[in-house]
Amino acid sequence: MIRITQLKLSLDEPVEALSEEICRKLRIRPRSLIRWEVVRRSLDARRGRSFMFSYTVDAWVADEEACMKKLAGVKDLERRKEDPPILSERTRRQPRKPPIVVGFGPAGMFCALLLARAGLCPIVLERGRPVEERVQDVERFWREGVLDPDSNVQFGEGGAGTFSDGKLNTLVKDRDGIGRFILREFVRFGAPAEILYDAKPHIGTDRLRSVVRALRQEILRLGGQIHFSTCLSGIEQSPEGWKIFCNGESTSSFVTDAVFLAIGHSARDTFAMLEKAGVAMEPKPFAVGFRIEHPQQWVDQVQYREYAGHPALGPAPYKVTGKGMNGRGVYSFCMCPGGLVVAAASEEGRLVTNGMSNYLRDEANANAAILVGVTPKDYEGYAKGPLSGVAFQRDLERRAYELGGGRGCAPAEDTADFLKGLGLTPPETHFLTGSVRASYTMGVHEADLTKILPEELGQSIGLGLLSFQRSMGGFAEKGGVLTGVESRSSSPVRILRDESMQSGLPGLYPLGEGAGYAGGIMSAAMDGLKAARMYLASLEVEPCGV
Length: 546
Known about the structure:
It is a single chain. By secondary structure, this protein is an alpha+beta fold. The protein has 3 domains: 78 residues, Alpha-Beta Plaits (2-Layer Sandwich), CATH 3.30.70.2700; 246 residues, FAD/NAD(P)-binding domain; 202 residues, no CATH class. 27% of the residues lie in helices and 24% in strands. It has 13 helices and 25 strands. It has a 7-stranded mixed beta sheet. The longest helix has 17 residues. The radius of gyration is 25 Å and the shape is globular. The C terminus is likely disordered.
C-alpha cells in the first residue's frame, strides 16, 4: 500500500473528494485506484490561512511497483506494509491454571481480551460492578451523596476512563500497530468509526459504556471468566503458584502462575497490601490542581475565530502549557469540550473532581484540569515509604471536602478572585463576558481555593493561568470558575518491573495506570496488550492465524 500525507480538503468538501485527490497525487486514472482509507485527519488552523482538513491516507493501487517507480522523489508518499497481526500464534502448552487479570479498566480489558483469543480462558477479578449497575451507583452518589467505595467513578467495569470524555489520543509511539489495533477493536465493539482517523479521537462516556459491555461479552464468549464485586485482598507465593485472596477471605480463592495487576491509579488499599506482601514499588511524580470552566462558545471563538459554528467543526478543544514557581510545569489535562465537572471520590470524607463529556459534547461549558507537577520530594513529609504520595493526595482531598462544607459540595472560586487571593493581579476583563455557572454534579460552595494546595503549588497554578491568558485572551479573566481538587491525574506509585514486564517476583505483571506505566485509556490498553504478548511469548506456541 502507499501512504499519502498532506492531502487537503476545505471544510465544505466531503471526505469522498479524497478519491480525486489521491488519483491526482499518484498520477493514476480512477480505475487504477483499488481502495483507500483515511488513517488520520487533523485541522490545519494556522493563522493567515483558510481552515482546511489535512488527511493521511493509505491507498491500494493496481501495479503498485510501477506507480511508485514513476513517483520517485515525490514528497509525502511512502510505500508501507500492512501492520502485522497482534496475535499470530496460539498456545500449544496450556498453563497449569488460567492466568488472572486483576482489574477491568482499559489495561485489564485488553490484556484479558488477548489472553482469551489465545485460548487461555483468563479469570478477571474486578472489585466494582458491571457497567450497567455501576452507572446507577454513580448517579445515586451524584444525586443523593451515597458513596459506594467499590463502585464509583474510579472503580468498576471500564475503569476511571468510563466516566470521562473517552479520549483515545496518546503520546506513546505506536511502532508495531498496537494502537491501531485497539482503535479497530473499539469500533468493532460499537465506537464511532471516526476514532480511526481523528487526530483527537473520543468516544464519549455515554457510548463508551456500551463498548465496554460488548468487550466483556466477547471475553466471556471466548471462555474467560469475569468476577465482579471481587476485590483482591491478598497475594502469596507458594509451591503451587500464586495464591489469590479476595474480599478479605482467609483462604485463597484462586491459584495461578501468572497475575496481571491492572488495578488502576486509585487502588490505595491494594497498593498497601502489595507493599506488605513484598512487591517492590516507589513513589513517582504526578500532578494536582483544579478544574477550570469557561463557556464553550467562548472557546470556539478563540480557537476557530471566524469559523466558529461551522458544521464541520465540533466543539473546540484546547491545550495550554506554562511555567510556575521554580520552573514547575503547569498545564491543561483531560480537556472536555462541552462537558461537566463531576464528583469522583472513592473514599468517604474526601472530595475529588474530574471532567466528563458525552459523545456530542453538547453541554454549555468547556472544562479542563489545570495541573502543576509534584515530585516525591514535595510530599515526602506526609508519610514514609512508597505510599507517601497517597497520603499527600488524601490530605488535599480532605481539605477540599471540608472547604466545600462537608456535604458533598465542591469548593469553587472565580478565577480572578483566586488570583487575588494569591497576591497576583488578574487581567482586566476584555474577552470573557458574563460568568460561568459551575457544573459540578453535586453543587458548589464558594470558597478560598488557596487553602487547599501548598503555597508553592498554588502560586504555580496562578502563574500558569496568567501565562495562558497571553495565548488565550480571557482564560484568566473574571467569569471563569475553578473547582477543586483534581488529585487523581495519575498514579502516585510505580510498581517496579523488568524488561519482561514482571516485578521482581516471577509471574507478577504490574501494568497500566495503577502500576505507573500509562496515562489514559489508550496508553493503558497498549500496556495491557504488551504484557499479554510478553506472557504468551514465554509459552510454547504454534501458528493460529488470528
